[in-house]
User: Fold this.
Amino acid sequence: MTAPPPLAVLHQDDALIVVDKPAGLLSVPGRGPDLQDCIAHRAQARWPDALIVHRLDMATSGLMVLARGAQVHRQLSIAFAERHVAKRYVALAHGHLADDAGTMDWPLICDWPNRPRQIVNLREGKPSLTRYRVLQRQPDGITRVALEPVTGRSHQLRVHMQALGHPLLGDELYAPPAVQALAPRLLLHAEHLALVHPRTGLPVQFDSPAPF
Assistant:
């Protein structure tokens, strides 16, 4: 994979930074010197007080909000934990979904022998809820779908879509090889974020059209 493009900044002020993460770039550094390039380090090179509040998978693109300083970080972390932040993703899924809208309510747990993969586990999994809405059923047998995670489990949207029978195109972890091969990357993008600004107390929202 080629190097991700330079960081795109959609908004910055004394409390918030909103960036559009490209696919293929880590949210936070990984283990090893070759996994240090990430949103956190790129942002901190420009704003030393920038702190990660939430993450996107390396393969996922789209909106991420960072906090300026520890106090704002605490405020935003609570807002995410208490589900006061609205998030919406867009994805391309294999096959045509039967229903125009619905919910996927399957508990998830890490598949430890095959980590970082996650699996549905009805007995031991953590509650995980995703709402979905069909945007377009394409004639090539692919569905464009909007996904709203109510909970924020690791790989939640990808595993839920796989469990629904419609894995995401380009998903190297959860799609069969034929579906992986339909796209050069995971076709999942965080397109919308809405939250209360931690300084002004006013609602703000940010949007990023999917690049696919």
Remarks:
- The two ends are 17 Å apart (CA to CA).
